[in-house]
Design brief:
globular; alpha/beta; seven-stranded antiparallel sheet; 27 strands; binds 5-amino-5-deoxy-1-O-phosphono-D-mannitol
Length: 611
């Protein structure tokens, strides 16, 4: 989704703003722009369609734009096609008010009509131009920027992180957010704002997380926060402990490859944070044992890969803790009228903690009085702050749009909660509890083993590069791995793919199998292997090319299958953590071989803050 950056201080602003925008490229965008307030307050705007490089070339990396205060934007089109005209910043007619915006103004057509009635004209198709002219309208009315911003907030519906320059207030940036991320930073060198921490981490580690409807005034003297009544409020900064390098490629060809290889560490970090020797300590969650014993159902929700983690977790929770679990796609769940007893625990899974539908589902559940637990990676994100309880995954910043290490650490988080519930409810023996805890600590080494064998997957990807349809089939947890494998393949290689519960294929989809269609079977669930093998044989007899990914202890794989890849053995409940690694590599290599933009696949955004 869109990214915003702002800087005001003692240095030339444009290079800093452009540098910050490059750190937000991972969010996805199709055009970019900057606005720099020069001496005397005149504001220069430069915008370009396409990659940031175009904007950097136009401005010589920002050097051509003089001024110590500026804002910038990468736009992921929502209203209006990607074009220079629709790119941000947007401005009023005399360029005395200039703004960038991330989010969606839902009532922009009504607001636009109202402004047109008052004599405004519009040059773009964007809701942001409407937002900018609304601020202009209230500024002309009240002649006071804080008042104009608070009136803006009172009249718009939707989500926004909005940063505004007023010609009358050179050197100052006014900003406000609602449901779109915005962080603020400050050092002696000046004040910064951004959609995400990596954009400004090079300059400051002191980060303020803004809440909905907080107005921020940034100047070189410091940052001040106000509520909508324009009363100053105090906030304390969080010191970021991870360093900028964690968000840099560090010699890897792509962020995705780097993040795939970080998985042994992030899995170890998440396991070791909560499991000390034999002691599983989830006290940080502030969910009492009494409460956890009382819950009668678990509802898991999320989007995309986070939802897929929920599908794995459903099998694990039900089997170990003997609790009924439903897994819900957040964009559906939020609009349903689910039957709730009030004794559920709703778990919202999200890497970014900003996904609009997941956040809305969380709010809906809270409004109904149900307890919520967020499993989130980004510290201080909206979902983390609004949930009753948070379990932070320890993946560090994830830059590649295709999630890998966050997915893996979310799996671990869910295993840990399942173990805790199983123990409390007495549904597994003490001995098996210990075995599973031990097994969790062994996962990082086993993931390393999978990674060490990556050349085999790379070679296979080169043989499969021309495939146009791929089917992933499996049963139980293997089916859950299939849906994640298929999403990964689609999003970065652009190869059409389907994931099927192996037994379901013959109810229609098998008619798509032709000579040479690649069918990838996942076989880690001992009790289900025979059944899935039969389903694979069914497709083989219709001409499919059969590849399988199997636990090293699984027997009974027919010799006629075309390719067999082995992964180390682990307890069946945790096998997704190993199988998914091979599938991430498979998608990665196919994407590279097909010449795609691996880290920033077309049409996609890292953090989906629109509905
Ligand atoms: O930040 P979130 O975990 O809430 O994001 C949810 C999905 O948008 C995300 O998992 C998406 O499906 C990934 N691009 C998949 O790789």
């Amino acid at each position: 989704m869109c990214g915003i950056v702002g800087y005001t201080g003692g240095r030339q602003a444009a290079p800093i703003v452009l540098d910050g925008l490059t750190k937000l490229e991972y969010r996805g965008y199709d055009s970019a722009g900057v606005a720099i307030s020069g001496d005397g307050g005149d504001i220069d705007i430069v915008k370009a369609k396409g990659k940031l490089k175009v904007l950097c070339d136009l401005t010589d990396g920002g050097k051509k734009l003089n001024g110590l205060c500026g804002i910038g934007h990468t736009r992921w089109a929502t209203h209006g096609e990607p074009s220079q005209n629709n790119a941000h910043p947007h401005c009023n007619d005399d360029k005395t008010i200039v703004a960038v915006h991330n989010g969606i103004i839902e009532n922009y057509t009504q607001l636009k009509a109202k402004l047109i009635r008052r004599g405004y004209t519009f040059y773009s198709e964007t809701d942001t131009e409407v937002a900018t002219k609304l601020v202009d309208y209230y500024y002309r009315k009240y002649n006071e920027p804080l008042k104009a911003i608070s009136e803006f907030a009172l009249h718009v519906r939707g989500s926004y992180a909005l940063a505004v320059l007023f010609k009358d207030f050179p050197g100052e940036i006014f900003a406000i957010r609602k449901d779109s991320p915005m962080v603020i930073g400050y050092t002696d060198g000046g004040a910064f704002l951004a959609s995400d921490v990596p954009a400004i981490l090079k300059y400051t580690r002191n980060i303020y997380y803004t809440d909905n409807h907080e107005i921020v005034l940034l100047s070189k003297e410091g940052v001040a926060f106000y509520n909508l009544d324009r009363e100053e409020i105090s906030k304390s900064a969080t010191v970021i402990s991870w360093d900028a390098e964690a968000a840099e490629k560090g010699g890897w060809e792509h962020f995705m490859l780097k993040e795939i290889h970080e998985q042994p560490d992030v899995v170890a970090n998440t396991v070791n944070y909560f499991l000390h020797g034999d002691n599983l300590d989830l006290s940080e969650l502030h969910l009492s044992d009494d409460y956890l014993k009382e819950i009668d159902r678990i509802v898991i929700t999320g989007c995309g890969s986070a939802y897929h983690v929920g599908v794995v977790a459903q099998y694990v929770f039900e089997d170990l803790a003997r609790l009924p679990v439903t897994v819900e796609i957040a964009s559906e769940f939020r609009y349903r009228n689910p039957v709730l007893t009030g004794r559920e625990l709703v778990i919202v899974i999200s890497q970014s903690g900003e996904t609009a539908d997941s956040l809305a589902a969380l709010r809906e559940m809270k409004a109904r009085g149900v307890k919520t637990l967020a499993v989130v990676n980004v510290l201080g994100s909206s979902i983390a702050r609004e949930a009753d309880s948070v379990l932070y995954t320890k993946a560090g910043p994830e830059i590649s749009v295709a999630t890998t290490k966050a997915y893996s650490s979310q799996l671990i988080a869910m295993y840990l909660v399942a173990l805790k519930l199983a123990k409390l409810r007495g549904t597994i023996s003490e001995e098996y509890f210990s075995t599973l805890k031990k097994e969790l600590t062994l996962l990082p080494e086993k993931i390393k083993t999978v990674l060490e064998n990556k050349s085999v997957i790379q070679k296979f990807a080169s043989e499969m590069v021309d495939k146009e349809d791929v089917f992933f089939i499996g049963r139980g947890i293997d089916y859950a791995t299939c849906i994640e494998s298929s999403l990964k393949l689609k999003e970065i290689s652009y190869i059409h793919s389907e994931a099927y519960a192996a037994g379901e294929l013959k109810h229609g989809t098998i008619s798509l199998i032709e000579n040479g269609t690649l069918v990838f079977g996942i076989l880690t669930q001992k009790a289900l292997v025979e059944k899935t093998v039969s389903n694979l044989v069914e497709t083989a007899s219709r001409g499919a090319y059969i590849a399988v990914l199997a636990d090293e202890n699984v027997d009974g794989i027919p010799v006629k299958f075309d390719k067999v890849f082995r992964i180390p053995h682990t307890d069946g409940h945790f096998s997704a953590s190993l199988a998914v690694i091979s599938m991430q590599l498979f998608s990665y290599y196919l994407s590279v071989l097909r010449g795609n933009d691996v880290d920033k696949p077309r049409n996609l955004a890292k953090s989906v803050t629109v509905e």
